Amino acid sequence: MERRDIIFYFGDSTTNRIRLFQDALSCAKFGKVLFILYEEIQELPQLSQDFSLISKQYMKMISFVYAKTINSLLGILSSLHEWQNIPSTIILDDITKFCCKEEIQKACGIVAFIIDTVRNCSRVSNLQCKLRISIDEEAGDDFYNNLREVHCVL
Question: Name one GO biological process term (predicted).
Fold first, then answer.
């Protein structure tokens, strides 16, 4: 897995979600996308492009999965290798929903587990899997920098 295949978005939750959704649409042109959220989205984010121009085929390539707890998140990730259609892109919306800014070790463990999962999906599918993770800016610069370090070490 190359470093460019992993992107962290650090900003406000609205901007992060727009970026993630734009990435999901772009990546859906090339394969299945798994979009993991803490809670159901009530409406799709406002994008710079018109939804009428977005192919319905690409929207069908995006699977939205909701994980309310860290255990449900880990359960989803640990079962991906068994899926019939392994995603080529995994997107996690706001890792801070699963651990607060004081739980940096937990967050680093989650990121390490997700990176390992993405590598395993790449190996099983023989495709280069991508990863996108958003971090709410309220978590702080230290939180973000520590997660970037985990990415660089792995």
Answer: double-strand break repair via homologous recombination
Q: How many CB atoms lie within 10 A of CB 51?
A: 10
Residue 130 phi, psi (nearest 5): -110, 155
pLDDT in tens, 29-83: 999 999 999 998 877 777 655 555 667 788 899 999 999 999 999 999 999 888 8
Write out the two tokens for 111. Answer: 């990121």
Q: How far apart are CA 139 and CA 29, in angstroms?
A: 32
Domain with 108, as residue range(s), is 3-37+56-153
* Structural domains counted in the chain: 1
Is residue 154 within 8 A of residue 115, CB to CB? The reply is yes
Sign of the dihedral through C-alpha 118, 7, 145, 35: negative
